[in-house]
Predict the structure.
Amino acid sequence: MADRAAAHATGDVRRRLRYWFDNTMARGTPALIGWLALVCLLIVIPVSAALVWADKETPTTLRNQLVAIWKNIGETFSLGGAIGTPAYVLLSVLLAVVALLFASTLVGLITTGVQNKIMDLRQGRSMVLEDRHLVVLGWSDQVYPIVSQLAEAESNQRKAVVAILAAQDKVEMEENIRAKVPDLKGTRVICRTGDTADPAVVRLVNPHTARSVIVVARDEAATTADAQVIKTLLALNSGPGLRPDGHVVAVVRDSRNLLAAKLAAGERGRVLSIDDVTARLIVQTARQPGLSLVYTDLLNFEGDEFYTVAEPRLVGRPFGEALLAYDSSSVVGLVRADDGIELNPPADSVIREDDLIIVITEDDDTAVLAERPADVDEGAIVEVPDAPAAPERVLLLGWNRRTGTVIEQLAGYVADGSVIDVVARGASAAAEAEQLPPYSNLTVNFRSGETSQPEVLESLDIGSYSSVILLGYENEDEAEETRPEPDVETLVTLLHLRAMEAELGRELRVVTEMSDDSNRALAPISEGADFIVSGKVISLLMTQISENHRLADLFRELGNPDGYEIYLKPATHYVAPRREVTYATVVESARRQRQCAIGYRLHEESATGPAFGIHLNPDKRSTVRFGDGDSVIVLAED
């Protein structure tokens, strides 16, 4: 047994040394020249010294010995001149020529072998021998924000590694990442080429020792992309298995494939549906202007985000007391060891020993208890109950596979007597609209029309709607050469809506779905407008869950119409207007209304970037003066 363990250890060291050598050789010609120079020096210098010291007439002083060694090194590659009989000279020259031919052939063989090895390395076929690294399986435009966010999340870690396996050229992947993510903040990205549905190929990136694995859907038709994701999950689970604290995060494009993907992912997997996540965020944002900005801030590692922390000093204390226990962190819930996620539990709920506290904070080490709670201005606290929900009129422009889910989600929120008017082109949209189920509180009306045409928009009385939802068309069935660029029709429609805003003399409440984040800068609409870029949102969400798998349940709760969600409510419902108060006063007022305050939005800053008036997780000792149009961001149950 001991001999077997020693042999295993020796083999592991040999694999590690070869892995290090492979990574060095993959750097190209400079590394090759360096290795050749090193090998020459390691051979020529000892042999030259041995020749000097083996010579009977060797010099006696060290200085002369070093000079003789130097001469031998200098003459190593010269043929020299043989003196003697013609036969001796001829044989010497013949031997020299044979030696030269042999050396040339040997160099050629070695060079060819090294070139083949370098080409093999550049094709990304060698094993990744890392531990507690992050693995990304698959390739799409989502990879760039994923890598960027992982680098940001790991910026306080030494030797962070992200290994990517995809059916793409290794060099091309590396070049694209360097171009799109220039600042990796010390994170090393390793790319490998291969089929993610092949179990043997998946092992190249060593997923069983990874801290987390992210499976992305390819940029192609939903059916094909989701099939590849499911096969990748099956290939991943056919291997040795994940480490005890490892987990998998995957995404499917079509919600109809969600169940199959969950089965393939297993118990350690978390699978997201682009359709469901996007639809929920669109509906919530349509009813809560500015919400997309809040979610972008929460999901982005460059700002404040969700963390789970243990705090022994709060054990046995009521949850309501924890809300003011941190100066620079916002408490929003608990992770119960037996009951899972509990957002905004009752204020008198006792924090148990094995509970984790859910906080919004800058980093995992910034949730520090305050020496004493911040001051609360009791005289500034007001309580204004929310007005009863009124029926809503919503206009939905465009159609894609998420439209039915958007309407279903909307029906879970709106009051009785609400109406949604859908305008879209195409017989398929009309046919699908006919198949929509009836809702008791929401009337769905469908009208065929080209939403990018001004005469169609002008006939809709847009000013009468409480909100406008603009969905992008999907053109997956069209030939690639005739397929329009993503978001072109959306941008044209926004142009017309902007012109109609000028005629109405007021800003329309518009939430826009886009497929490419780079097109958002081209959108002819106010700076702080709500945009839902499905690919980016999913990338941010997957990265958050990859860093903390418990957040999957938290985000699922936030998207549940029957649970607690994020709202932007009038600031005058919490504190007296135009009165300077500490933010702790706002938190206390929200607590008394059974809500968790996590920030605020100032109306006068809403058109100014980069935050557009959003102040997420401000210090409770800071002061603020609210006016008309300002909002408090709360976690509440509607």
In short: The CA atoms of residues 323 and 565 lie 17 Å apart.
